[in-house]
Amino acid sequence: MKRETQFERAEFVGRLDNVKKEMSKRGIDFLLLSEPANHNYLTGYNAYSFYAPQMVMVGLDLPEPIWIGRFMDRVSAVMTTYLMEDNIRAYADKYVHSALSPYDFMADIVKEFGGERARLGVEMGAYYYSAKAHADLTRALPHATFVDADVLVNWIRIVKSPAEIAIMREAGEIADSMMRKAVEVIEPGVRECDIAAVIYHAQMTGTPEYGGGYACTPPFLCVGERQIAPHAEWTDNRLPGATIVNLELFGNRHRYQVNLSRSIAVGRIAPAYHDLAKFVVEALNAGLQTVQPGRTCSDVEATFRETLARHGFEKEARLGYSIGAGFPPAVGERTASLRRGDETVLAPRMVFHMMPGLWLDNVGIAITQSFAVTDNGHEALTSTPRRLFVK
Questions:
Q1: Distance between CA atoms of residues 182 and 193, nearest Å
Q2: What percent of the chain has pLDDT over 90?
Q3: CA-CA distance, 62 to 178, in Å (whole number)?
Q4: pLDDT tens digits, 282-293
Q5: Rounded CA gap, 41 and 255, in Å?
Q6: Strands 220-223 and 243-253
Q7: For residue 67, what are the contacts with CB-CB under 8 A and spacing of at least 6?
Q8: Whole-number Å distance between alpha carbons of 80 and 360
Q9: Which of 40, 68, 66 has the alpha carbon at shortest distance from 52?
Q10: Cβ–Cβ < 8 Å for 40, 255
């Protein structure tokens, strides 16, 4: 069966070594991971199966991680990971949507490798590690000691490899194509849902060189009064003769996602809105110019905030967040944020979405930039001009 991994085995080995070093520092014998992006990062696993309980187990003394999931998804584990057959474990259908708990099956595997009385790290904040999952697992392993290892792997993921950056450049090109085609079709009388259809088609077709994949969230298409709602859904309404359209789109390549937002003014828009766009772009560019290894996330946010404040505006929410590999429901790595007080030191190959969106009482605007930190500044991962588009 052909393997579909996107990275060399040596890269996976290096990632695993880094995780084990952090486990050792924390006194964790086995790490039980629930976050799909961490499964992908450590094994290459890629399938839409995370709605059912699944885990990747890392043991300090185990040469490979162990994937544990639903029986019908075992074939995807064989196809998309580098793991040996014996390290791919699957539970029977009797555990699916039943009174039986698949965490009993998982606990037996922990016991098989000597973890019955070990210190077990679990991701208490992971989207797919429910309160019931934790209760079932602790019940099945009453003599083990559970410790919260949430975002342990996420903080290792925050610095990307050159191979990861290369994939994110491709995702950025897909995002550019999506935005270009969306802007082309936006005009008075077009239905919002038809704009969404163009976006989805562009997302999947990608570029002539490579195709795209599904994103961690749907595209956000915020029109008219919904321009002040950052995560609104489209309708089947037709665009009026004069309105604002805020788009947040996501290019995704091999699960690596790059975000891109732009505002489009349709018809005659008040001059004050054009001024607001200039102010936001000025502050965005100032923040980007601050990006340097050794500076902090807080430094970048402060430059943006002070520049925007000169024009009488303030952004309440954080300015941005770390991005990389992701699965629904969100791409953010839950680590560093470009916000006041975040003293995370920037390092080469960290990747962020700088999102200086403003959602004010009556207007909203979103002109953003995803970028990678370089040795002496930043690399923009999309090339769509940073400006207000006018149709």
A1: 12
A2: 99
A3: 43
A4: 999 999 999 999
A5: 10
A6: antiparallel
A7: 39, 43, 45, 54, 55, 56, 77, 81, 83, 87, 88, 89
A8: 45
A9: 68
A10: yes
Whether 141 contacts 172, CB under 8 Å: no
Structure confidence by residue, pLDDT tens digits, 207-226: 999 999 999 999 999 999 99
For residues 285 and 17, what is the distance between their CA atoms, to the nearest angstrom? Answer: 38
pLDDT tens, position by position, 256-315: 999 999 999 999 999 999 999 999 999 999 999 999 999 999 999 999 999 999 999 999
Query: Nearest-CA neighbor of 240 among 261, 254, 223, 252?
Result: 223
Phi then psi dihedrals of residue 119, to 5 deg: -90, 120
- Contact (Cβ atoms closer than 8 angstroms) between residue 45 and residue 80: yes
- What does the alpha-carbon distance between residue 176 and residue 259 come to, in Å, rounded to a whole number? 10
Comparing CA positions, the residue from 136, 55, 149 lying closest to residue 103 is 136
**Hunting for tokens 């390092």 — which residue is that?**
347
In b/e form, how buried is each residue of 88-114, taking b as 16+ CB within 10 angstroms?
bbbbeeebeeeeebbbebbbebbbeee
Structure tokens at 224: 């008219």
